[in-house]
Amino acid sequence: MTELEQKQQLVELAKSFYQRGYSVGGAGNLSVRLDDNRILVTPTGSSLGRLDADRLSVLDMQGNVLSGDKPSKEYVFHLALYQQNPKCNAIVHLHSTYLTALSCLDDLDQDNAIKAFTPYYVMRVGKLQVIPYYRPGSPEIARELSERALTGKAFLLANHGIVVTGSDLLDAADNADELEETAKLQFILQGQKIRYLTDDEVKDLENRGK
Ligand SMILES: [Zn+2]
User: Fold this and answer.
1) At 62, which CATH number?
2) pLDDT exceeds cutoff 70 at 50
3) What is the pLDDT of residue 24?
């Protein structure tokens, strides 16, 4: 894929998130690793529904802007994940309704906020670790994520939203979709007796994915 195609794909996927109500106003940001030393990030204050491929921010791994507009202030944690995990090539950060609602609940299991009840969640994401609350854009979020960068694909930022990684942008976007749907199902099922997948059933899915 050429750099222009990567920019166009980011604009298209961001618009899809916006149109489906996964992002409102200027919330949320997406990024892609372009090569060993550059990433593409959505600009600060931009709406995911109205991005311009020519104005997307291109940064080096030190956070210097090489071209485009000023990046989202949350670019710091995107960089931290790319620096720590060479297999992470794209990141989707959303304040989507059901995942954000989940992030506001007290007493979440910090190691896995959604216990598996569908195979699709296990195959795409596996588990959802919780990052404690910090002010949006603060360096602590980047530090917490870089410490966990190699331990999972998705992270729930307490009282904030979701950070989902992928092998490419399409993979990260599909992971985010699956996760939002799983959170929605969990709320629909609230108060009912869920048949969770057993440990053996989860292991069987994990082994097939390898
Ligand atoms: Zn955010």
Assistant:
1) 3.40.225.10
2) yes
3) 87
Please say if 180 is a catalytic residue: no
Q: Beta-strand (E) ranges in the chain?
A: 29-35, 38-41, 57-60, 65-67, 90-94, 128-131, 154-157, 161-166
What does the pLDDT read at residue 127? Answer: 95
Could you tell me which of 108, 110, 119, 104 has the C-alpha nearest to residue 185?
119
Can 74 be counted among the known catalytic residues? yes
The letter for the amino acid at 66 is: L
Tokens of 209: 């994915």
**Ligand 1: distance of its center to the CA of 124 in Å?**
22
Domains identified in the chain, total number: 1
Q: Which pLDDT tens digit goes with each residue over 62-97?
A: 999 999 999 999 999 999 999 999 999 999 999 999
Instruction: Please give the distance, rounded to the nearest whole angstrom, from the Cα atom of residue 29 to the centre of ligand 1.
Output: 7
